[in-house]
Write a structure and sequence with these properties.
The chain is α+β, with helices and mostly antiparallel strands. It has one domain: Porin, CATH 2.40.160. 18% of the residues lie in helices and 49% in strands. The protein contains two helices and ten strands. It has helices at residues 2-32, 110-118; strands at 39-53, 69-83, 89-99, 122-137, 142-151, 154-156, 159-161, 166-178, 183-191, 196-207. The strands form two sheets. The chain has an eight-stranded antiparallel beta barrel with strand order 1-2-3-4-5-8-9-10. A two-stranded antiparallel ribbon has the order 6-7.
Length: 217
C-alpha cells in the first residue's frame, strides 16, 4: 500500500508541476522569442511588375493616366544588407530587368515594340534599399518595414550616406524571421511609384558566415 501511495503521489506531483513548467517556458520564450536579425545578410529577390508607360515615349506615367500602356517587367535582385540591432538596414543590390515580348498589336508604336523585343536585359547596379523597422512581434517572428530605394551613394554598415543619391522608389514590406534570426523571408505589400500597377515581389535574406565559421557583424 505504501509503495502504491508513493507512486500515486509522485504521479500527482508530475501533473501539478506541468503547468508550472509550461508557465516558466512561456515566460522565458516571451523574454527571448525570435530575435530581430542583426549583422550582414545576403539578399535575393524575384520581381514581377506591370509598369505603366506613355505609349509614344515609353516614359513612366501613373497607371491612372488615360491611354497608358503596360509593360510586363520581370527582374531579379542580388546583393547584401547590413542590419543594426534596432532592425534598420542598408543594402547594396544589383538588379537585372527584362521586359516580356510585346505583340505587334500593342498600343505602343511598332518601332518601340521592335526595340523592346530586341533589347537585352537591363543591368542596374549600385542600388540601395534603406530599411526602417515599423513593428515586430518576437513571438511570431513577423514584422513590417518601410523601404526607400536609391541609386548612387553608399552604405556605411546599416546607415546610408545619401550624398549624391537619387531616390527611385519606395515600398512597404512584411517579413518573417526564422532560424534563430539567421533568415528573413519577405514580400512587398505596396509601392509608392504610381507607375507600378499589379506586382509580385518575394525575397530572402540569409546571414553571411565568414570562412572561419564566425557570423559577420
Amino acid at each position: 500500500m505504501k509503495k502504491l501511495l508513493a507512486i500515486v503521489v509522485g504521479s500527482l506531483a508530475l501533473v501539478v508541476a506541468q503547468p508550472l513548467i509550461i508557465q516558466h517556458w512561456s515566460k522565458a520564450w516571451a523574454q527571448v522569442g525570435i530575435p530581430l536579425p542583426s549583422g550582414q545578410f545576403s539578399d535575393t529577390a524575384q520581381v514581377s511588375v506591370a509598369l505603366c508607360v506613355n505609349p509614344s515615349t515609353i516614359a513612366e506615367e501613373p497607371c491612372s493616366t488615360s491611354g497608358a500602356a503596360v509593360l510586363a517587367d520581370s527582374a531579379v535582385d542580388n546583393g547584401s544588407v547590413t542590419f543594426d540591432s534596432a532592425g534598420n538596414a542598408c543594402g547594396t543590390v544589383t538588379e537585372v530587368d527584362s521586359f516580356l515580348l510585346l505583340a505587334p498589336s500593342s498600343s505602343i508604336s511598332p518601332s518601340i515594340v521592335a526595340q523592346i523585343n530586341t533589347t537585352p536585359p537591363f543591368l542596374a547596379t549600385n542600388n540601395h534599399p534603406v530599411f526602417t523597422l515599423v513593428d515586430y512581434d518576437s513571438m511570431t517572428g513577423i514584422g513590417h518595414r518601410s523601404v526607400t530605394i536609391y541609386t548612387g551613394a553608399t552604405c556605411r554598415g546599416a546607415s546610408f550616406n545619401s550624398s549624391g543619391a537619387m531616390k527611385v522608389n519606395g515600398a512597404n514590406q512584411q517579413f518573417v524571421v526564422s532560424n534563430g534570426g539567421n533568415r528573413v523571408d519577405f514580400i512587398t505589400t505596396s509601392f509608392t511609384n504610381p507607375a507600378f500597377g499589379s506586382f509580385t515581389v518575394t525575397g530572402t535574406e540569409l546571414r553571411q558566415i565568414s570562412q572561419n565559421g564566425q557570423n559577420t557583424q
